[in-house]
Please model this.
Amino acid sequence: MTFNDSSLPPVLPEDAASLVAAVTGSVLLPGDAGYDDERAVFNLNHDLVPAVIVVAESTADVRAAVAFAAGQHRPVLVKTTGHQMVGPAHGAVVIATRRMNDVAIDAVGRTARVGAGAIWAEVVKKAAEAGLAPLNGSNPTVGVSGYTLGGGLSPTLGRSHGYAADHVRSLDVVTADGELRHVNAQSEPDLFWALRGGKGNFGVATALEFDLFPVPRLYGGGIYFPGERTADVLRAWTAWHPGTPETMISSFAVLRLRALPQLPESLYGEFVVHLRIAYNGTAADGERMVAPLRAVAPALLDTVADMPYTKVASIHNETTEPVPYYERSIMLREFPADALDKLVELAGPDSANTLTMVELRALGGAWDREPAVPNAVATRGLPYVLLGVAGGPVSEEQQLKESVAVLLDGMEPWRGDRRLVNNLAPDEATDAAAIYGPERYKRLAAVKKTYDPTNMFRINHNVAPAA
Ligand SMILES: Cc1cc2nc3c(=O)[nH]c(=O)nc-3n(C[C@H](O)[C@H](O)[C@H](O)COP(=O)(O)OP(=O)(O)OC[C@H]3O[C@@H](n4cnc5c(N)ncnc54)[C@H](O)[C@@H]3O)c2cc1C
Model:
């Protein structure tokens, strides 16, 4: 089924009146005060222009918004933080969940129950008060919901514990029929399987309950080397990390550093190699393990040290402010010596590459193991994820996208099938069968047919309902 949502008419104030009466949150039409704030997203090159935004304050608000969309035959897009929007959402109902951001920690049961709008910074902070940690991502402002529904690859605890989706105990979800469902392995097993990895295709998650882990501190941080040493650092890291325990998580990136307040000014704009280290073990063991990496070359900056888990965002040190960029990512099924040489050729100091970031994360360990209650996460068994990010404005779109394509096309011989849903770009909304692999996609499409037969939730990396 093909939809042309751009032909949907605007929502008229008289149409919206019933919605305004039904919700306690805000209902915003284009031109209303607050509409522009609520349609703002993380990637400044992406424009969101829905017919109406419901800034939900409760599950009842979400149900009212879904019922309104159904009545008007409009698609629904859920926005938590706007870190991964797909399409402009013409004619759509956007449900903004950011006000539903309660975070409750059960220190004894070692779980968190969070509202749809919670972000990782808040969960990390509250969990740490009980000496616990979640399977958070690299960036503190990313939303728990989108991240977890898309699998959730934690670069600090994932290699030993698996994907964040593997540790979801239950979800409260409003489906396309407006029903609120408490979804767990017993109550709705197919939906529970699909939501954990199949992302926003099946409804609006209004709350999630997931495991926390007793990790009050880490030995972690970043080692920044001059970009000229790309080949030496990459060679040393790829030889080193497979021999490390699952409690040692590391990744490699080539960066053109932004002016970030956490960095010394002398590094602003510099071309550097960044090794990221997160070791859940003693500082003494960590220091011993990391020594061969430190020996590769004199570092420009080395922040790897014993740290409270609350400082976890400093490991990747990413911007939390919205920025303009284009990005794309692939999985690699192997990374032999000729792949390493090719990556150096494409991203190293002698390349024409001007990308803001070329990142290689090593996977394996618990990321490869199916959880006790299997889910739809598609990337098990693939050892690396490669991401290219080209920072720059819309006016340079073609050139920026080409520079990402040069990187990824160059690595094509080692590309794995299947994709990490959380790394998909806005314009990669098609071909979900290739993203998930045919068998998993077939099952997802069958679940979609049961819970969203009209494809209300289609402004995403879409799984179409089975025919
Ligand atoms: C700087 C940066 C760093 C990142 N680091 C990591 C990382 O380390 N590991 C990783 O796995 N990913 C990472 N990501 C990717 C991130 O997980 C995705 O962008 C994710 O979609 C963000 O979720 P969100 O809720 O913040 O985003 P949003 O843009 O608000 O949501 C994206 C989509 O998720 C779905 N969604 C969100 N909330 C709900 C909900 N309540 N119910 C149903 N569907 C929902 C919807 O389809 C929505 O359109 C990173 C992204 C950025 C920009």
About this structure: DSSP finds 13 helices and 17 strands in the chain. The two ends are 9 Å apart (CA to CA). Residues 42, 77-85, 97, 116, 137-139, 142-143, 145-147, 149-153, 155, 199-200, 204-205, 318, 422, 460 surround flavin-adenine dinucleotide (CB under 6 Å).
